[in-house]
Amino acid sequence: MMLEIKGLSKTFRGGFKALNHVSLSFKSGEMVALIGASGSGKSTLLRHLSGLMSADIDGGEIHLDGQPVQQNGVINRNIRAVRANIGFVFQQFNLVGRLPVLTNVLTGGLSRIPLWRSCFKLFTAEEKAAGLAALARVGISAHAYKRASALSGGQQQRAAIARTIVQKARIVLADEPIASLDPESARRVMQTLADINREDGTTVIVSLHQVDVALRFCARTVALSNGRVVYDGPSSALTEQMLRDLYGTEADDIISGSNTLTRPKSDVPTIFDATRALAAVA
Ligand SMILES: Nc1ncnc2c1ncn2[C@@H]1O[C@H](COP(=O)(O)OP(=O)(O)OP(=O)(O)O)[C@@H](O)[C@H]1O
Fold first, then answer.
1. Domain map of the chain by residue range?
2. Ligand 1 centre from 169 Cα, in Å?
3. Fewest CB within 10 angstroms: 5, 46, 57, 64, which?
4. What is the ipTM of this complex?
5. Correct CATH for 1-85+171-189+198-282 of 3.60.10.10, 3.40.50.300, 3.20.20.70, 2.60.40.10
């Protein structure tokens, strides 16, 4: 599905401009990293793409395969149908902790299940089988009947990805999905996103604080600074200088990965750091 953003602007109450004429388009099957310093507008952009937040009155438009998500500050009245194609993975997992993992995953299909049935949480054998298959794909089928709150952060995040599989989402928007995970869990979550991208052709747009992860997993990177797109192109063409300009005083930590998952646990690095990644493609 083609996701097109034209001239998107968002001004928060008080006058702060969080998005400033953002225009981007995403083709089916892309895996794109969204990077930028804290406060640059990554989460705000992702919320607009799914119609969770409306732009300014004259703030541009977003279309998914020609269907409006929103136009000039007005969300499509039929947003539920549009949103059925969009899966969302949040930093804080967003599962209902007291419900079993499988039930959480099956709620991904709710937009395609008649309302009366979803109200009573009745799922057919076929739906349950689809849920279990999705859990198997993300490697956590053994935990299907545990309460979601009993899972580790990384497992909960993989359950959230399984939910997007059940939903049959064509686009997955992931907002800092690895920010609160340890390095190995983070790597697995990114690999799971890469798998659904490669195997199902699902478009994945993922905001990341870790530049090295963006370079490792995403062929394309979009960089935001103060609500504007300042880079959109192959991740391999990003230079260290661009990253320094983008992150300012945060740059050393971000680039060397000293505060992220880049520090290898053993001497076999699972993910290489951004400087070496850049040197390798130079
Ligand atoms: N509801 C809101 N009201 C007012 N300002 C907001 C609101 N939400 C976000 N902002 C501001 O908009 C800017 C962009 O925020 P956003 O969360 O999109 O940044 P981000 O790039 O995702 O940052 P981080 O990496 O820290 O999550 C920030 O300066 C933030 O303070």
1. 1-85+171-189+198-282, 95-169
2. 26
3. 57
4. 0.94
5. 3.40.50.300
